[in-house]
Amino acid sequence: MDVFYYTTGQENAALTARYFNISRKTFHKWLRRFEDSEYDVRSLADQSRAPQHRRKWEVTLIQEDRVRQLRKRYPHYDKKKLKVIYEKEYSEEISTWKIERVIRRHKLYPDRRKAEKIAGKRARARQKPKKRITQLVKEGRPCFLFQFDTIVIYWDNLKRYILTAVDHATKLGYARMYKNKSSRAAADILYRLRYLVDQPIENLQTDNGSEFAWEFERAAFKLGIQRYFSRDCAHTTT
Length: 238
Description:
Elements: H1 2-6, H2 13-19, H3 24-36, H4 61-73, H5 79-90, H6 96-106, H7 112-127, E1 145-155, E2 158-167, E3 173-178, H8 183-197, E4 203-206, H9 215-222, E5 226-229
Parallel strand pairs: 1-4, 4-5
Antiparallel strand pairs: 1-2, 2-3
């Protein structure tokens, strides 16, 4: 371009700019660079556009480790929430920028599919809230309330599951051993219990174990039994 300007262009800036389809301002910028370099053609090569002063890594090793631990505990919290928790737990201020740098560096992003699955479960739970056993007024008649639980035993290098059912009023107990604690096994003992007592069972109490889901829930619905969950959703109460 500058060579054209001094030869064919006869030092006519407008003509040179039109020839290369650029503005006159752009042409003069390149011409100035060429002249300032004392007509060194290498000065016309593309120059790096990277900033001269780059931001340095300003997170200490302690801060980095703390942020990583917090992110693992709260994988779905954003940097603002993590900042609040960090400052509360460690009595030290930290910027959201530092938290974001640590998340990016170690790729501490939550599993999208897992997050969507959890969100779906929570949405369904809000639509159909669980009934707590504290909501039920217990009555002292047989088969009004059966409380279910699972016991794990180890015998002769084998692991077995004993599903139990106890009548709240009469303390009648029934138990069966299974190789696994699937919902099918829990549904099986429920059907057997109903056959054994030979009368309708009104209510059930269970914890939040996986064995008391799916097929067990369908069996309870089919038998017309109301379902209640333990207060802590971990262990049944008597």
